[in-house]
Amino acid sequence: METQNPEPKPPEVSEVSPAPEPPEDAVVLATEREQLIGERDQIAAEKADLADRLLRARAEFDNFRRRVERDRSRPPTKATPRVWK
Questions:
Q1: DSSP classification of residue 24
Q2: If you average pLDDT over every residue of the chain, what do you get?
Q3: Cα–Cα distance measured from residue 31 to residue 33, given in angstroms and rounded to the nearest whole number
Q4: DSSP-assigned states of every residue in 45-63
């Protein structure tokens, strides 16, 4: 003999309990996560700023080096020998 299980009926709207509140640990972890994301973004912005400053300092130094090399390679002007005498 076959016994048929009647299909369970879905709970009535009034029978559904509200969603449980997240545990305090989850709230704390979410807060810490947001803080860490903020710190990460701040550090990334600082890193980009420092990389830009380094690039500009290198370019300025290269320009200085080229200027000095160019000045040294030029022949002295007529006024220079009189000053050295």
A1: H
A2: 82
A3: 5
A4: HHHHHHHHHHHHHHHHHHH
